[in-house]
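PROTEIN DATA CARD
Card holder: Histidine kinase domain-containing protein
Chain length: 757
Origin: Limnohabitans planktonicus II-D5
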Amino acid sequence: MQGLVRSLYVRIFKRELSADEKRFYGEWVLFSVAALVLLASSLWWQWGTSFGNVIYDRLHRLRAPTPSSEIVIIAIDDFSLDRLGGWPVSRSVYVDLLKKLADSDNRPKAIGFDILFHDATPADLDLAEQMKRHRTFLSLETPLGESGVTIKKPRDVLASAATGLGHINIAFESDGFLRGIHLTEAKTSHLALVMSGFSPRGMSEQASYRRFNMVNPSIGFPTVSLADVLSENFPLHVLKDKYVLIGSTAPSLGDHYPTIYAGRQASGMPGVELHANVLNDILRGDLISYVSLPAQIALSIWALVSVLIALLVLSPLAELLVTLFVIFCALMVSFLMLVTWSLWFDPGPCLVAIALVKPAWAWRRMEMIVSFMGEKAALLEQFKRPRRSLTKGLRLQHFTSDTVLQYSRLLDRALGMMNERVQFLANIVKDAPNAMLSVDENEAIINANPKMVSLVPAGLIRGSANVAPFLAYLGLTSAEGLQSLVGKDHYVSALDNQASLHYHIFNVIRVSQSDDKYLWILSLVDITEIRYFQNQRDRTLQLLSHDMRTPIASILSLCRQDPVAFDDPESSAFKKRRHAEQLLNMMDDFILSIKAQAPKYKLSEVLIDDLMDEAIFQIKDLASTRRIKIEQEFDLAPQFILVDQRLFTRMLVNLLVNAVRYGALDSTLKIKLAHDDVDNSIHGVCWVHCHIRNQVADPGQEVENVAQQGFGLGMDFVRTVVGKHHGRIQFDVDKPPGQWALVHLMLPMMNASRVEL
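Structure generated from the sequence above:
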């Protein structure tokens, strides 16, 4: 090994170096020193620990610790709260529990209460008496106040009856997750530590922080409900000689904390389960400690120096493989130390340093190549056609000089072998923002950029192939040659490689190189989105034109009435002005139709009764002109839905307007709102139902002479809005005159009860 190092030193540093090599090696030394200083600083000030926490979480899940069968959790869950009278649970319940265990001679090895007993209750004396019959440990807290840390113990009568007291404080890390605890805090041991009977062995509070192995919540510890334990048929022997922890697990009590499994479980872990995990590790001696700072620095520097040396003396491929190997080794060392010795070596800082070093050094390499090639390119008078293999005749020699210099020589030789015309044209076509294709004077394809290749089926664009099949694919003919297509915009449509229809503008340009040499440039400009928005605009304008006739018709109807017939003429004038203002507001519907196609709506929780009342108010004058009564039957229970209020109200108005337009004169428009108590579908969704009924008018009585009976036009808007709100709508409107037409609208109801099938 010593001979190899000496040989490398002589071959690299003892031979005559060029100016570029001296500059390169000098920059590498400065770069390496800066990288090592940055790494040491990050380790000292604990930068980059967030990335290390991510690695720890994933490695911890791979370790998959198992729960001890010696630990049992008695859970105060929602079932227990329902059976035992809610929170807080009466201390007489704990009296019954302890008495039942002692009388049946099924005493646990230790009982820990993850519950604070600060307030006095009548059952305290009885609870203290029963606690003396067991090894009972109570919780205390050490809040940080203005005067420092204080200790809040349980009631004296309970504290004196307990075998021991322990704190249950939670220690969050910088990213907000919980991975460890302080074994001692305010000179008080943790509840799990005092239950285990082990001593903290004089550790300081600053050094008492330990990470612990967290059992996957999907596996969990043996857990029984408090209500079940108090039942007559519960086998109490399962608690005998066990470590029993009593605490809340009900989500409604809020005693849940974010852990490394919180994202996967979509919930935090109850505090009593956290203490069970700590007790599990203490009993097994598996609490996790950090490696010493010198060891952390040594391992991190080893990883970074290995990568720095690889960057200097290896080719890009070999250097990449070495870097990946170093990263793998750092992760494996961290995992093996965690599994074997319960020590945590954080590879995060060194991996972050490697991730920063590689692109920075790659930039320096690229800078040198660009500078070198710029000097050489100035000496070239023309490009020659490139060969298929640029590395032929020159091998890369590792450990002789930097590989960047070797690749620079390769590129220097390749520049003299490039073809001016093809390379220049290829660069233009490749970098063009639109799909482009170049064709020679014989209409043979020369090349195409990647965007053009991605748009057409494979096989249509091949080198030296004729362009005619490509034109036929676009629906164009070239009987007179490409010259007939020059100077015009041709609107074409075609399917791409994913069978998606695209619209394009096709252009042909002739580029002359000499008197008898020229090229054709064919381009496709994608206008699919423009066509899409144009169609959206056209449909919106159609919707706007259709609905503007409603307020106009109402205004004209009011104008035809004799003002003398009214006691208050100003009332009619007010209605006219209101409808005129409504006519101006109809311009907003242009925006509404565009908004209806938006991928996301601005939703809010609202009563459907309020939306229906607003819609009825907007159409009641139109209904009055046709002498149509509006009959409402609303559910007494509130029916909240999550909708875009403006769009949904506009949709209801559209339904009611069409119901009035095509409803029979002197008829009744019936509107009914109801909801399901419990839906029996597989998704367990409760629905709000809206039924709109009207009698179909004779063709001569319709407001407009349209061929369609029932509810008329505008149903595209209705279906779009209902669909975007995850609702359903059914039309039963193809009825003869005099029969009842029906629209049934269904929407998911908020705060609905669900049934688990």
